[in-house]
Amino acid sequence: MNRTCMWLLGYLGVALLGAPLGYAAEIQLPANQRFAAEKTSETPDFQRHVVPLLGRLGCNSRSCHGSFQGRGGLRLSLFGYDFKMDHSALTSKSSNGNQNRIDRDKPDQSLIIQKPSFQIDHEGGERFRVDSWEHHLFRRWIESGARGVDQPRELSHLEIEPSEVVFDRRSAPVQLKVIAVWNNDDREDVTPLCRFRTNNDAIVTVDDNGVLTSTGRGDTHVIAFYDNGVRAVPVMRPISSDGTPQQQEKSATTPIDRFILAKLDKLGITASKLCTDAEFLRRASIDITGTLPTPQEVDDFLSDNSPEKRTRKIEELLDRTAYAAWWANKLCDFTGCNPSQQAELGQETSVQWYMWIYARLQDNLPYDELVGRIVLSTSRGESQTYNDYARQMSSYFRDENPDDFSQRPTMPHYWTRRSMEEPEQAAQAFAHNFLGIRLQCAQCHKHPFAPWTQHDFQEFSRFFESIEFGVRPEERETYQQMARKVGLNVRGDNGSPIRNDVLRHAKEGRTIPWRELYISERTEPESLSLLRSGQVQLGPNNDPREPIMEWMTAPDNPWFARAFVNRVWAGYFHKGIIDPPDDLTPANPPSHPKLLDWLTSEFIHHDYDMRWLHREIVSSEAYQRSWNPSENNHHDRHNFSRMIPRRLPAEVVYDSIKQTLASDENLDEVRNDLTRRAIGHLSMRLAGTYAMQVFGKPDRAVNCDCERDNQPTLLQSVFLQNDPLVEQRLDNSDWLVEIAERESSNSTPVSTQELVRQAWMRALNRPPTNAETKRALKHIQTTGAVTEGLRDLLWALINTKEFVLIH
Amino acid sequence: MSMNHSRRHALKIGALGSSLCLSQFLRANAIQKQPDSERSAILVFLGGGPSHQDTFDLKPQAPAEYRGQFRPIQTAASGIQICEHLPKLAQRADQYALIRGISHSLADHGLGTRYLMTGNLPTPVVNYPMYGSVVSREFPSAEDVPSFVSIDRPVEGPGYLGAEYGPLSTGEKPRYGQPFRVRGITLDGTMTIDKYQSRTQLLQDLDSAFAGYEELDDSVRGFDRFSDQAYQIISSPRARNAFDLTLEADREVDRFGRHEFGQSMLLTTRLVEAGVRFVTVLLEGWDTHRDNFNTLGRDLLPNLDQSLSALFDRLREKGLIESTSVLVTGEFGRTPKVNKNSGRDHWARAMCSLMAGGDVEPGQVIGGTDNKAAGPIGDGFSPDDLAASFFANIGIDPQKEYEANVGRPITLIRNGSPITGLLR
Asked: Is A800 on the interface with B (CB under 8 A)?
């Protein structure tokens, strides 16, 4: 791989995310003071004052003039930041053409003063009073010439005081103060020019002036927005009413728990106790391997008295192939592997994609390298001719002795799917897949909750322009010849997708013409910004993906490793440290920033070792807590003080029902033959089937982690209670057949009570209580045959919440 | 965003009502309509793309290779003509409206269907919800009947609204004289109501792991709620009877027709009568690349004519036509010129849909196509407009916003508005 062709001009860092408070320069007083008096000599600045004030007053919001249709004839850029458009809108004539929106000679006659101050009718009502500071500021801007901005100035960052707010029951409201720090080190108190938002109004409310009022116990953030700056302030009010400080941090057994317990101490929340061994085994088996433990495994684990048994079990689970199989599913979620979006042969290529990742997880290839082999992939190896390439691709499909796609060093399908054709779509998908950020808003307007502007989005999209999938101009002739030989009908120069009729030739061992992924020449060198944290020079022959990969894996990249660490965390808990896990914006801050920082830097430090990350998380007490609440953590949803029950993922429901009903003899095969498992090779074949849809397996058609839907629904209950698929599985249960055979052959009879115990061990992975056994036996007595009673029992167990939830 | 315009605004609605934009008007309107909670809707999806110029938009003056083999006939609505193979629907032309000149550019079954079923141009960034999912979210049905049923498979899904609003799919179509089973509802094989109830009794006693803490977590609470509802639907006579076509008199079965279309439509009306809010009924076979005229003339059109007419009659007899919105549409039209196989190929520039029930002003044609039925006269209507009209007729504001799972609010139908004159 050619990595020599890049010039990274160094990183600016992400200053907008935060910088230490400093007082290098004098801070300009807030605008509401400076413009309080009618007469002032100051000329308000369009970017620094006028547009933020329009935002603060709600003028450029979606329901008002920020709407794409405008309102009352006036349209402003949504959430500001298109200074040219806003300036020309404000300085043009009104839509009916009779009146100037601004009148430099008689500023008070300007529509943009008369309407919002409600001197004449305004659908948006009164936005400010006559003679208020807002009025003075707008008037002063108009009379001083109503100038716009040619080149927007760069905001360095926002500072907020206080940097954290802790309320108690009697606390008075708290005024926030927001300082804008510009790149030239100008500082201004912009509190009256900010928009504020609370992330949970049941804990704190914030008014337009930045005054916080405590409304309930718990913790959340208040966010301030100004220019393209976003800054969050943590706000909390402890839970415990008696005010005694908790001392749980001291008892932390792992680094993760230190961070979690420190925050629980601060909040006065008592953590739940550790879960039982049976709960742990079931939970960890499902979360690590997507597989229920066997009855034998449960017995062995429960009777093991070693204090190290959980640690050993974690290690054992991470070494199983099912770990690689289940987490390959998750990585396919994150990277968007979708049969219907593939360039050709959707089913086959998505299986190749899955298997390729599966093989890498089995080898525990470091995450950065795994991603590098996807991101930097090309169809052809460095010195491979087109003929060799076509032969190699065809060989993966040969019926006899096919080559193994997953042995390829790189995996090009990521780039060749149809949803990556447009650079803008590729940019959105890429940012979501590997950075956990949602750029889509910035395609049409300034991102309302992140610093991204349309310009940032456009520059980032331009990286993806030269990634091509088709036929290289110099190979057209070879391609056409090959196409004619196998009867592939080609329209245009860029080749055609392979369909089944042509694939037949490859199956029979012939070479068919494949399109390829390659980088086309840029017409001229250019300098592009990587989401404002690095400027890249691209020469005509540079692969634009190389500087991106370099940038992502630089240790100070704020998203790449963090997004993955957070997503893996979210796979083990009901939510991420940042949640939703694919929305890394400063307006959606982490619940435990130091924990996330630590996990991220240690993950990098451990060379992106994924097994290390899993082990670290599963070994924590936070992960091993009971779902049973403590005396005061009933309402805690995001501090990980107890395990919140989650539904089994779609694939796991499917496999678990099968496993529960399998005979003792077939049990190992049902679990370990990955070619027949929904979490394994069947993953892509089952995509879109009824059971998968009902239980929310994602289509991976859109850029959102939320596509995997784990909410319970009516149809899931209908499915579990009475779907023919479940009914057939119950009717054909090998285990029940085995029991029936043993009964009729009169060989060593197994007591019904033991069978009842087995049923529990199979479905719920724990022995039943005495009461449960009694109830089950009572039911079995009412049915004719033991197998009939057991069938009912298995049906009931599969329908319990305990079965379908991870708890 | 909170605007302090409430007082002024209220004044304006009275004094200057005409200056209200449509969305505000509909919102105000919807508020008055909400209490009418008995609304339901039917989508008859003619999958494959029915030929518009051989059904409801004939061009008898066009050259033979365009106009095809069918003749138009007069209908009960003056000035409206439709295909000769739709005589019953012609007699009932005063009960529905035809929308001609609907036009788009996605002549692919998958994309076209997605567009027509959601009213939003498909994109890889957002999964838009299908009509029925929106309706079942806005007007959930009673506990013992499902809100949204699809005969036989779902056509598009709940999209950003989430799996909770997906349809219950019957899994198969009812066929006359054969037992009809509904996936998940019918009790199969040796299963009886008694046995099912004894199982659920056992389940109730064993499902105690979260006893005392049921209210704590959404997933626990959700499963309890849905498990109960599933039990009610599976065991209640109301839902079971709705799906049981053997309860219909022979005369009624004959009225709808003993063919697949007829039986599916009969099931559709039974479901609406039982309180299901939205029924999608999939009538397939319209992708007539070859032998277009025989396929339509002998089979599809007579069956559609009979079953759709019976549906209208039955809804009227049951007094449900006022509260039930019906949309009949495919995903696109077909090529103006007949091809060498006597077929017509995909054509998205022009298509035709039918709407009835609710507030539809019946007995009219809105819009039109040029003399070869190749494109709309003027701008025509978009699938977005059609969707906005359908939603408005159901009583759902097409401008309504949902907090979608993509991190921003999404307008239900962003680029369309109800077709002027279609609704009363």
From this structure: yes
